[in-house]
Amino acid sequence: MNLQELLNRFIEDPRVFQIADRISMSASQHIFLSGLHGSSAEFILSAIFKHKSTSQLNHLVVLNDAEEAAYFHNTIEGLTSALDLFYFPSSFKNRRNFRLLNSSHVMLRTETLTRLSNGGNKKIIITYPEALFEKVVLPEALSDNIIQIKTGDTIDPEKLMEKLVGYEFDRTDFVYEPGQFAVRGGILDIYSFGNEKPYRIELFGNDVDSIRIFDPETQLSERKLLQVSIIPNVENSSSIDTGVKVSLPEFLPENTIVWMKDWDVIQQKLETQLEELENFLEIPYTPREEEEDITLKQNLSKEDFVEAGFLAAELAKRHIIEFGYASTFKNSIGADRKEHRIEPGEEAGRVGGRADGNAAGSDTAGGELITLHFQTREQPAFNRQFELLIKDLTNWEKQKYTIYLFAENPKQLERLHSIFTDLKAETNFVPVPTAIHEGFIDNDLKVVCYTDHQIFQRYHKYKVKQAYNKNKAITLRTLRDLQPGDYVTHIDHGIGVYSGLQKIQTPNGRYQEAVRILYKDNDILYVNINSLHKISKYTGKEGSVPKVNKIGSDAWQKLKEKTKTRVKEIAFDLIKLYAQRKAQQGFQHSPDNYLQTELEASFIYEDTPDQSKATADVKRDMESPAPMDRLVCGDVGFGKTEVAIRAAFKTCLDGKQAAILVPTTILAFQHYKNFSERLKEFPVTVDYVNRFKSSKEKKETIEKLKEGKIDIIIGTHALLGKEVKFK
User: Fold this and answer.
1) Between the chain's N and C termini, which has fewer beta carbons within 10 Å?
2) How far, in Å, CA of 712 to CA of 685, rounded?
């Protein structure tokens, strides 16, 4: 509701009415929005998108680079919750390699083009120069090559597979990326280029019994569908006759408004891409064996790309809205345009809630540039100094500005409120649990929009929809890596020998592929693909050959029971030990204060759910009167050190010292660097003891530790020596 109120203020802005009126005209308009900083441009576009008089218009937004486009897309998505919002990337993994395709990007491009060709609701397409450089197929070529399948249809599976192969789909055992299909008896899995996840089509004879979207990793169905559109990679296929390709502006509907950041930057990048393409085409291409599993663009030619001059001429036919540092598009196409500047307050000619078209000056059909001025400023940097932040916000409050604080994670807003409370700051702000990329101050609307990640100097990561890929498909990849003869463990039947995949007939007469496992006395177990989670590759002592179990015998069950009994005994001993520790009195730490909250909020990455839980559990233990006894486990790079830093800092805030014990000399120094960097803005002293220090330096460090001049000491087993004393 808070966000909607803010958006309404932008929608009712007279300048937004000016823009809406002008882009509703038939003659092409050229508008420059001057003075937009931070994410204010995203708010203006969102207001236009939601404006009643522009409800039928589509929008193409061209940013300066891929990262800028992704952040813009995320902000618009958060502000509008629009379903028909598309990120339109380049097809390639590398902007200098015009053969190596990115399957996720191809999927996003195909999805966008398909939805555009189908018409329907108004749409926003966000892109950048490298993506615009590529031509696209005509809407007719796209629609002619889509395979439609409905529940209840009668199909010929063989002909469908032939068609998929003709569209350059690869037949695999399991699908894990767009452009693949797999057949197992009466089940047909297809990974279309127009959907984030693959489809599973179940056949009863030749009739389509059901269609589901499924997860490639778990193989579990997510939801049923009545019909699906199988979309091939029409843009990059060598076997599909797509006819003439066109630029993206030519593909777009006529009622599309073009927004662009800095045309001079966009134009320069397009020209650079053309030079790099020409250089790339001069190098003879020879296919290599390692490229078999890589998606490559076929029949590459200069005709598949568009030059900057042609693109500019196409864009000039439409309404143009620029919002960068200056209006540069008019210069690039050689047009001599008269400029009409509309100063703040000149929009007073609004009539009945709309801006009077004559109030802005003459009609712009002759190519006049209309400049609308906005008085916005970027969010200032506070370097995590909350006194400065509070002083700044108090100043805006006195000037009757409304303060909005944006954060993707509601917990960050709670942390901010906690910090303000601890510092006894009477700051009123409107919390908005939505992420925008950059904060700003709008002096016209008297609003302050600050982001949590800029306040805490945290890295703000953008999110772009990705296709599933084989790097994520752990279960399937493991299965593909298994070789006949490898030992595997089935959770119910024990250790056996993997013997490959085999088609078997199910009780209802269908054929389905299953995993074949050999057991003692040549017993065979067939495992359905939906039960892959029960199988794992055997891991035991290196060099030892495991004993293969017999199906039906109680040996495996006895082994499991014996293991369970031993685990229970260990658990009993641990419970007894923990009960004794629980009865002892430990040091009870204080609840979090604003410094602890500030440290946690300043973490440059978003906490993972497990990281948040581990931090909360550790702090709860520390605030308990009983001694803490907790093990934090996790793979490399999953954030264990951050949990340790927060715990060590918490104990320092209560006047205690913290010792960090590590196994190696190198790790001691690495942790010293990590702790020092993370805590450099806070009132704690960090030092270390290891073999890198001379005897004299070690003695000095131990003496400082004894005097209480060191808050956190990091070291190897040397910390356990008798000479090491804490204050």
Assistant:
1) N
2) 6
